[in-house]
Design a protein that fits this description.
The structure holds two protein chains of two kinds. Chain A is mainly alpha-helical. Chain B has eight helices and 22 strands. In chain B, the strands form four sheets. Chain B has a six-stranded antiparallel β-sheet with strand order 2-1-4-5-22-21, with helices on one face. The chains are: A mainly alpha, B alpha+beta. Chains A and B meet through helix 7 and helix 8 of A and strand 6 and helix 2 of B.
């Protein structure tokens, strides 16, 4: 008996050690590598104020804010419809909302080119009206929204599905109409989902690379700038940009944890 | 006054309600009594407008309200899980409906405070719902429904989530509150005692059908169907044939045991010579150990089960299993002992077997339906 019972303990220890090792290889070592790199190629902190850092930073922070706001405005009603309404092709809509989760960002970028490009489905008529979308800030916002929206929908929907149906029935018997039920009952009780969805959407938007690179043209966001500097051999700038992006990611994760805990 | 006329409902292919008709007047409380899953809650939801019936009419104060949404029915609903809004405090929960109907703040405040005082929950005004006890939540839920001054109040097992001691205390209080308000109430429960205390009338339900609607005592002592008899505790069902009829007495040959035996009962109008009938008798009417009575026979005790201060005893008479109830003090027997079993001739009650499936009434001809549109007004 004692011999048998110690096998699982060894098994658990072994499995834990392996997973810690993999974690170290994937997360900790890259961070250490970044620190080493910063020391071997000293960071010129003046670079922080240079245009090569400030411009991508401002562009990324602002576009991510706008795309998160759009994701919220579209995502919360979409989550509501998917949770509470039944209509034909609802499952198809549900799958389409989740598509960006599994779609490679380059495909997303290509689809946006096909839609909003000069000769695209919407791009062509817009072009005739004198409106250009591709390779503008607006294109970046569209690309970010495309990938961030499912985070809002998924997160909000999860909390909406947890709301007891009897609460909605109670509100109806007390005279509340659909919008009042949404405003007074469903939205306040989905607060956690809305907050965590917002945070995750912002994180996804600010980190968007593939699609943004395809539709951004000469506009450079933080992740694109890191890629360009790393490939172009400007390690100092790449280092600074990486530190900034990691700092943003840490902040977002800390806020997210607080929200989830509350 | 609320009336249901021939209501039927299916979920997928399962019949949940079949031909339900009942009416509850102002100041009257109707209890829907039945096991879980017999359609009681669906019936309440149909009345409230939360579920649409497949057939039949819901009539409120002589007005067919089939097509009115729940928001327009003015029917209060106390849910089994209370359904209190967890993000609002007690006051806000109670004020919810009044605020939705955009009443001036002063009126909202005074009506909520009055209702809270009536239900003695004024001290919990600003308490969060999660901090209230089960009994307090129940009162807040009741207050939230009552403050709207509804025409009908629906209560779906309002005490089932409470512990037995609190339940006993609250059901009497609830009864007093409902009587004071004087509104029509429909109260769902599976607890017979609760039904007897709260109800002016009891409707016994089984598998989507009403088996009997009567005053509590009638249902208890004169159940009409076998299901109703078993549900009110008259578990002893004797199948027999009328063999002799006198002026006020009948002799029945009981045939559902292995050896037929005869008993004497009062004569009921439905008795005819040679007619097969079912009789029921409550366990407390089965007397053990006394060598006297209208019907006296020997039996064997086959089981003794303690049930609080009482004992549930099973006794075998000529191959027929009967249930008896007595107190520990009065029982000097053990399992397998032979015992005298006796019952009075007026302890038996015949089960006529007729369920309440006939319509309560047809919609009066004067009740004009406005071309299939929203509602029909009774003139």
């Amino acid at each position: 008996m004692p011999i048998r019972s110690c096998y699982p303990a060894i098994g658990v220890k072994f499995a834990t050690s392996i997973s810690l090792l993999v974690f170290a290889l994937l997360i900790i070592f890259p961070l250490i590598a970044l620190v080493f790199n910063i020391f071997s190629a000293p960071v010129d902190f003046k670079a922080l104020s240079s245009r090569s850092v400030i411009n991508p930073l401002i562009l990324s922070v602002l576009t991510a804010l706008i795309s998160t706001a759009i994701s919220l405005l579209v995502g919360v009603p979409l989550a509501y419809v998917l949770t509470y309404k039944s209509f034909p092709l609802r499952d198809v809509l549900d799958t389409m909302v989740n598509l960006p989760f599994v779609l490679p960002p380059s495909v997303a970028g290509y689809l946006l080119l096909l839609t909003f490009g000069k000769y695209g489905l919407l791009g062509y008529p817009l072009n005739i009206l004198g409106i250009t979308i591709m390779f503008t800030t607006f294109a970046i916002v569209i690309a970010q929204t495309f990938v961030a929206l499912p985070f809002v929908v998924k997160s909000v929907r999860a909390t909406m599905e947890d709301i007891q149906p009897s609460l909605i029935d109670a509100a109806k018997t007390l005279g509340a109409r659909e919008f009042e039920i949404f405003r007074e009952v469903i939205l306040p009780l989905s607060k956690t989902g809305v907050l965590s969805g917002t945070i995750m959407a912002y994180a996804r938007a600010i980190g968007e690379f593939g699609a943004t690179m395809m539709v951004g043209g000469l506009l450079v966001t933080l992740p694109v700038a890191i890629y360009a500097n790393a490939i172009g051999g400007d390690r100092e700038t790449a280092n600074v940009l990486a530190v900034v992006l990691i700092a943003i990611a840490f902040t977002i994760l800390t806020v997210f944890k607080r929200v989830v805990r509350s | 006054m609320i009336e249901l006329i021939n209501i039927a409902k299916k979920f997928k292919n399962k019949v949940v309600l079949n031909d339900i008709s009942l009416s509850v007047g102002k100041g009257e409380i109707m209890v829907l009594l039945g096991a879980s899953g017999c359609g009681k809650t669906t019936q309440l939801k149909i009345i409230a407008g939360l579920v649409r019936q497949d057939r039949g009419d819901v009539v409120l104060n002589n007005k067919v309200i089939n097509n009115s949404p729940p928001q327009e029915r003015n029917i209060g609903f106390v849910f089994q899980d209370y359904a209190l809004f967890p993000h609002k405090d007690a006051f806000e929960n109670i004020a919810f409906g009044l605020k939705i109907s955009k009443l001036p703040r002063n009126e909202v405040n005074s009506r909520v405070c009055k209702t809270m005082e009536m239900l003695e929950i004024g001290d919990f005004r600003n308490e969060r719902i999660s901090r209230l006890s089960g009994g307090q939540k129940q009162r807040v839920a009741l207050a939230r429904a009552l403050v709207m001054d509804p025409d009908v109040l629906l209560l779906d097992e309002p005490l089932s989530a409470l512990d037995p001691v609190l339940r006993e205390k609250l059901r009497e209080e609830l009864n007093a509150i409902l009587k004071n308000t004087g509104i029509a109430g429909i109260y769902v429960t599976h607890d017979l005692t609760e039904a007897m205390i709260v109800g002016d009338k009891i409707a016994i339900m089984n598998e989507g059908e009403i088996q009997q609607i009567d005053k509590p005592d009638e249902v208890f002592y004169r159940p009409k169907t076998e299901f109703a008899a078993r549900f009110v505790g008259a578990r002893n069902i004797l199948e027999g044939r009328v063999v002799e009829l006198n002026r006020d007495e009948a002799t029945i040959e009981v045939i559902n045991g292995s050896n037929p035996f005869k008993i004497r009962t009062l004569k009921y109008p439905l008795f005819e010579r040679q007619k097969n009938i079912s009789l029921c008798i409550h366990p407390e009417e089965v007397v053990l150990g006394l060598r006297e009575g209208d019907n006296l026979m020997r039996g064997t005790i086959t089981g003794i089960i303690p049930n609080g201060p009482a004992l549930k005893i099973t006794v075998d008479i000529a191959g027929l299993k009967l249930y008896a109830t007595t107190t520990r003090r009065l029982l000097n027997y053990e399992v397998n002992d032979e015992v005298w079993v006796s019952f009075s001739r007026n302890a038996f009650h015949p089960l006529c077997g007729k369920k309440c499936r006939s319509p309560a009434r047809e919609i009066p001809a004067s009740c004009v339906r406005s071309g299939g549109s929203k509602e029909a007004l009774c003139r």
